[in-house]
Amino acid sequence: MLNLKSVFVIAILGVSASAMADDTSINTKDIEATLTANLAESMELMQDQLTAELDTMLIIDEQKKNEEATAKVLLAD
Fold first, then answer.
1. What's the rounded Cα separation, in Å, for the pair 4 and 26?
2. How many angstroms separate the CA atoms of 20 and 25, rounded?
3. What pTM was computed for the model?
4. Sign of dihedral through CA atoms 41, 42, 46, 52?
5. Which keywords fit this entry according to its UniProt record (predicted)?
6. How far is CA 13 from the centre of its chain?
7. What distances in angstroms separate CA 20 from CA 8, 23, 26, 32, one per listed residue?
């Protein structure tokens, strides 16, 4: 799987290659479609990972609050 930096490097190389090709015509539509698909997939994966990390952080925070509340009740008794 390509990461975000690789996608941008490939895109830049593709653009520079098409700019330098004076005599030959390079069809970049397939490359652009592939890059767009890879970028969308990478962004979706990053979003899923971020959501999972945030969910974990929220669960841990809620558990800590519950433990603190339990400790206060036990101390009050």
1. 24
2. 10
3. 0.51
4. positive
5. Signal
6. 22
7. 18, 9, 10, 17
